[in-house]
Specification:
This protein is mainly α. The chain is built from 20 helices and no strands.
Length: 458
């Protein structure tokens, strides 16, 4: 079998499963660490690592602002590691990112409290959070492309949805660990040392993920593109090249990401604030509900990915944008019942709506950019949006809850985000079954000037 045939979509299934496992292993630990921080922001950091605030909402907002630092770092990580990944390879880049985020998370668990070292506690927290976000900014693009570039053209959305499914799996681990700690320990013991154990445990998963990733190879299509870059001087790579030649792809990718990213952090992060601080529900019960919802989210993502291969990327994403925009208007009244079953069902449905957008993202974005700049393209489109979307969504929602006591501004905010993403979906072209080799060939022809420049195509 030729290299061209293999990379076009004939990678043997046992090998593909091994690649998926390697991609997921790292993504699980990356998101275990990332979500651990998100949850700890609402129940720990606002109490022991930050100075005292005027009220509990102000303390949570301050903690969320340190959380947002990681999102600010993610585009920088996407640029830095996108350049590295497009030049030297996806595998080596992913080995760097997993070690960085693991080290930052373990060190978070070692931080002295504000009472012990004063202002240095939040300063060190923000520094480690920046490193964590930098690494995560480079992780996502490499993890999904490692799979997408090996996957068959006709099944790319299904196979590349598995790294996406690893995100809720990592979140499940983080939620379960915190749930066990909050259930087994007294409130004082949890705040003194219990939360730290959850951060230290990430070291085990980091080591396992790193070892697994040493045993995989780059996709043949990337190896061919790398060889061509070394001989074709006119063909560049990296963020400036992708912005020059594929600006529409970047903009459409950002629009697709907007509502999905906002919705996720409202459903899984702000819900904890609304239920715990707003409705005064028990923390352990909330974490138990979130953990079960994450398991359902993990289960549904590959199913939706397979569906996107059958009916197309656009109709599935369109349904997610429309349905997701409605969630806030009925979810918060459902939360108000304080019925655990109703709350669980509400969060699960929200994550299903989210999955309609989230599952197909790796395939859609991989099919927007040629191999020589794909890592940079998908990373920029995915990570830059996080600054104005996911990072601020819990901050805005908590501020509105404090100022008005109402969920209405948050529901309207999510609906408006859905409209933006709806426009992006209508602007994108359907790429179901697209050949990455054909995309590379068309790109090479444009670079050589044999066809009109079409760099604005998504």
């Amino acid at each position: 079998m030729s290299v061209d045939q293999r990379s076009a979509g004939s990678t043997e299934q046992p090998l593909l499963k091994k690649i998926v496992s390697a991609s997921m292993a790292g993504t699980v630990v990356e998101w275990y660490d990332f979500f651990l921080y998100a949850t700890a922001s609402t129940i720990v950091f606002n109490k022991i690592l930050l100075p005292k605030m005027g009220n509990e909402y102000d303390a949570i907002i301050a903690a969320f602002l340190t959380y947002a630092v990681g999102f600010i770092a993610r585009p920088l990580g996407g640029i830095v590691f996108g350049q590295i990944g497009d030049r030297i390879g996806r595998k080596q880049t992913l080995q760097i990112t997993i070690m960085l985020i693991g080290a930052a998370t373990v060190l978070m668990g070692c931080l002295p409290t504000y009472a012990q070292i004063g202002i240095w506690a939040p300063i060190l927290l923000v520094l480690l959070r920046f490193i964590q976000g930098l690494a995560l900014g480079g992780e996502w693009g490499g993890a999904v492309l490692l799979v997408a570039e090996h996957a068959p053209d006709a099944k790319r959305a299904f196979w590349s949805s598995w790294p996406q499914a690893a995100v809720p799996l990592g979140n499940v681990l983080a939620t379960v660990v915190l749930w066990v700690m909050t259930s087994a320990l007294s409130s004082d013991a949890f705040l003194v040392w219990g939360w730290r154990v959850a951060f230290w445990l990430s070291a085990i998963v980091v080591i396992v993920g790193y070892v697994i990733r040493t045993k995989i190879d780059e996709a043949p299509i990337f190896q061919a593109a790398k060889a061509e870059l070394e001989t074709e001087k006119a063909a560049g790579y990296g963020v400036f090249e992708v912005l020059k030649r594929y600006p529409r792809g970047v903009l459409v990718g950002m629009g697709l990401r907007f509502a999905e990213n906002i919705m996720y952090y409202l459903v899984v992060t702000f819900s904890i604030v609304y239920l715990g601080t707003g409705l005064k529900m028990n923390t352990a019960s909330i974490l138990g509900v979130i953990a079960i919802a994450h398991i359902c989210h993990f289960s549904i993502i590959p199913v939706i990915g397979r569906f996107a291969d059958r009916v197309g990327r656009k109709p599935v994403y369109l349904a997610g944008a429309i349905l997701g925009g409605t969630w806030g208007f009925w979810a918060f009244p459902a939360f108000g019942t304080k019925n655990v079953f109703v709350i669980l069902l509400t969060i699960i449905v929200g994550l299903v709506f989210h999955g309609l957008m989230y599952s197909g993202q790796p395939a859609i974005m991989a099919e927007m950019f040629p191999t020589r700049m794909r890592y940079s393209g998908v990373s920029i489109a995915y990570q830059v949006t996080s600054i104005v979307a996911g990072s601020l969504a819990p901050v805005f929602a908590t501020e509105w809850l404090k100022a008005t006591g109402s969920w209405w501004p948050t529901a309207v905010y999510l609906a408006a985000a859905g409209v933006i993403t709806l426009i992006a979906v209508l602007a994108m072209r359907e790429t179901k079954g697209a050949s990455l080799h054909a995309l590379d060939a068309a790109d090479a022809a444009r670079v050589r000037g044999t066809v009109p420049e079409a760099g604005a195509r998504a």
